[in-house]
Design goal:
By secondary structure, this protein is mostly beta strands. Helices cover 11% and strands 42% of the residues. Among the domains are: 136 residues, Immunoglobulin-like (Sandwich), CATH 2.60.40.420; 129 residues, Cupredoxins -  blue copper proteins (Immunoglobulin-like); 173 residues, Beta Barrel (Porin), CATH 2.40.160. The protein has eight helices and 43 strands.
Length: 722
């Protein structure tokens, strides 16, 4: 009897333990996220933002490994939205990429994301719809380890942790930011004081550097694209955590939720210890600072040295224009060492040395990769004494190598771009020009990336971690974002183990939206119930990477009105310009060209055109062009074909033949940077027409212009542009 009761109780205990473990593993953690429009004010200007549950950034979502996440998104915007769970392993239909893994969440609709939490670490989440991430749709996501996890590190994983998410704020609409980038506006450089004009070059002894730069058809040097009005830490410029005292160790779970900014991280309390990257543990390494790429995450441990002080954790945007701070501890504030202003002409000189005339990089025999050689360091040489983190210092605490008998798929991509027209691509193709890349479940996909551009690119793979081959052998660290610097060649590899269609893209938002994307697609995958027509949906996704952007300019002068309007995308350009006199003698004319850029650097554009002109000069004899052909510019209705080619010094050579056999050759240069706000331009052609102008930039959309036109004489007026 006693044995039977004991056996019964023992079985109940076993069942209870199993039930408790099962219940723990199946714990459902639910969040409701209401997505709404709001207004926020920074730098004295109110602007639309997107708030979730009334918060910017979004609330921190916290789970424990073994939980099941249920996140209901209620879209109360007037536009479609989505949420992507950055760095998470989940079923493909839960990944949150509209038109690739689900249909967009339309206004007034709700959508449930449900997936198991099968990992731990610092991650984040954000909208993958349009440019919503730039205006508030991002937040921290912390996946805690279970205390009985075999990888639990005492003294690290049990420290008090603070989620920190970095971002930036612009008072401009992000759609306008994107348009300005494509139209090569230098207003952001003016705002940042980084125009690198000829006057500045002469003053700093770099006139030859500037000439060489433009001879190689390059625009001014920059380390980031956009002027931001503020950078933020947890949605604030400055925040405090006064609860810590001397000797306390604090774990900071840092995510870079910025749309395009890299951030230098430094600490006033001395060196700090890096313990995790992209949600994966690394062997602790002590450094003075690190740079966190767009969308990367780092976990660092800092120590509070003394009571009576509050120590600054400083995040400095890579262009060093804006900073954000968190102060840890209570008392007098101790500031971190500020970063010095960048030496742009030194960077320009380096860029000149590395760039060939055709736009390719010239490595000059250097083996560059894994951030070992920071070519930008010439712009901050005074900081060479600091111990800076790079990827070669990251090491996994456990082996990460794949089975030796696993089949390997080798892929190579060249990261390409054109700063003049703001086109970003892979192998000179944007997403709209590429098919999905088929891979097979069970194989190892090894990718070699070469960055043949002068910009950093944080390449992110959805749904997988990859090994970065950084010299650590079997202990290569696992990441989901690779910051690949200019001219670097890096290799990553991942195990194809979760079927579906997975996005691979540059995480600088404006690079991604300009086309630097690919999709890895598993062969023989199951149907996605959220995408009833996958072929149609993929075409919609492709359209997002190749939109048309337009610009317009009009000069209201005392001798007439002239202007232009242009619409462009990755390859096509449709432009029309006009010159309207105030009388028949000055005349009226318009030219329209439809062209397609060809070649990786897009120096060449064949086009077709239409030219209409009328003027009345009385009894003047008919003019001839320099080729001896009768000039028809007094009364012309002509079709033409031609080509435009960008020469050294950024001069455009345009040659076209009209349908009556006449030939016109023209040289033209716009936006010659004379000083910070003064720009010059010229035009001369074989019809014996010429123009010279000088403009003073008053603001983003206005300037004063004085010019001389061979047909219309001197003019002074106000220029408006968009």
């Amino acid at each position: 009897m006693f044995r039977r009761q004991f056996l019964h109780l023992f079985l109940l205990w076993i069942l209870n333990v199993v039930f408790m473990q099962y219940s723990f593993a199946q714990k459902v953690v639910r969040y409701n996220l209401w997505v709404k429009d709001t207004l926020v004010t920074f730098a004295g200007k109110s602007k639309r933002a997107i708030a979730v549950n009334g918060q910017i950034p979004m609330p921190t979502l916290t789970f424990t490994e073994g939980d099941t996440a249920e996140i209901m998104v209620h879209n109360q915007l007037k536009e479609a939205t989505s949420l992507h769970w950055h760095g998470l392993f989940l079923p493909n239909k839960e990944d949150g990429v509209p038109f690739l893994t689900q249909m967009p969440i339309e206004p007034g609709q709700s959508h449930l994301y449900r997936f198991p939490i099968i990992q731990n670490g610092t991650h984040w989440y954000h909208s993958h719809s349009g440019l919503q991430e730039q205006i508030g749709m991002y937040g921290s996501m912390v996946l805690n380890k279970r205390s009985d996890d075999s990888t639990f590190r005492k003294g690290i994983d049990d420290l008090p942790a603070i989620p920190v998410i970095l971002s930036e704020w612009t008072n401009y609409k992000p759609e306008n930011v994107h348009r300005m980038l494509h139209n090569a506006s230098d207003w952001f450089a003016i705002k940042k004081g980084t125009t690198q004009s000829y006057a500045e070059a002469i003053r700093e002894g770099h006139f030859k550097t500037k000439i060489t730069n433009e001879w190689k058809r390059m625009l001014a040097m920059d380390v980031s694209d956009i002027y931001y009005d503020a950078v933020l830490m947890n949605g604030l410029r400055t925040t405090s955590f006064p609860q810590f005292k001397a000797g306390d160790k604090v774990r900071l779970s840092i995510s870079n939720g910025g749309a395009s900014s890299y951030f230098w991280i430094s600490y006033a309390g001395g060196p700090f210890t890096v313990v995790a990257n992209d949600g994966n543990d690394v062997v602790p390494v002590e450094v003075d600072r690190l740079i966190i790429g767009v969308s990367e995450t780092y976990d660092i441990v800092v120590t509070i040295p003394e009571d009576g002080f509050s120590y600054e954790l400083l995040a400095t945007a890579e262009d060093r224009i804006q900073t954000a701070s968190a102060f840890l501890g209570n008392g007098t504030r101790k500031n971190a060492r500020p970063l010095s202003k960048l030496k742009y002409f030194e960077g320009m000189q380096m860029m000149n040395d590395m760039m060939k005339m055709n736009g390719d990089m010239d490595l000059m025999g250097m083996d560059m990769g894994m951030q070992k050689m920071d070519m930008n360091s010439v712009m901050y040489a005074d900081e060479s004494d600091l111990n800076t983190l790079n990827y070669t210092k990251l090491r996994s605490p456990a082996k990460t190598n794949f089975p030796k008998d696993a089949p390997v798929r080798e892929l190579k991509f060249e990261l390409t771009g054109n700063m003049n027209r703001y086109v970003w691509s892979m192998d000179n193709k944007v997403l709209s020009e590429s098919d999905k890349i088929l891979i097979k479940k069970g194989e190892v996909v090894r990718i070699t990336l070469y960055n043949n551009s002068m910009m950093r690119h944080p390449m992110h793979l959805h749904g997988h971690d990859f090994r970065i081959l950084n010299g650590q052998g079997d202990y290569a660290p696992l990441k989901n974002v690779l910051d690949i610097m200019p001219m670097e060649t890096d290799t990553i590899e991942f195990e194809a183990n979760v079927e579906g269609d997975w996005f691979f893209h540059c995480h600088i938002l404006y690079h991604m939206m300009a086309g630097m994307n690919r999709v890895f697609s598993y062969e023989k995958q199951s149907d996605n119930p959220l995408l009833p027509n996958k072929s149609w949906a993929y075409k919609q996704l492709q359209k997002e990477s190749n939109p048309f952007h337009w610009m317009a300019q009009n000069d209201f002068a005392n001798n007439g009105n002239d202007g232009m309007v242009m619409v462009q995308n990755t390859r096509w350009s449709i432009g029309s310009e006009w010159r309207l006199g105030y009388n028949d003698m000055h005349g009226y004319e318009s030219e329209t060209h439809i062209g397609r850029y060809i070649g990786r650097m897009q120096w060449l554009m064949p086009f077709i055109g239409f030219d209409w002109r009328y003027r009345k000069l009385g009894i003047h004899p008919a003019e001839k062009n320099i080729f001896g052909q009768r000039n028809t510019k007094d009364n012309r209705v002509q079709l033409s074909v031609g080509v435009a080619y960008t020469l050294p010094m950024l001069v455009t050579l345009q040659t076209e033949i009209y349908h009556d056999g006449n030939l016109r050759v023209q040289l033209r240069r716009e936006d010659i940077p004379v000083s910070k706000r003064i720009r010059s331009a010229f035009m001369i052609n074989s019809d014996k027409e010429y123009m010279f102008s000088t403009s003073y930039i008053l603001g983003k959309n206005a300037g004063l212009r004085v010019h001389y036109d061979s047909d219309m004489g001197f003019g002074l007026g106000l220029t408006l542009n968009y």
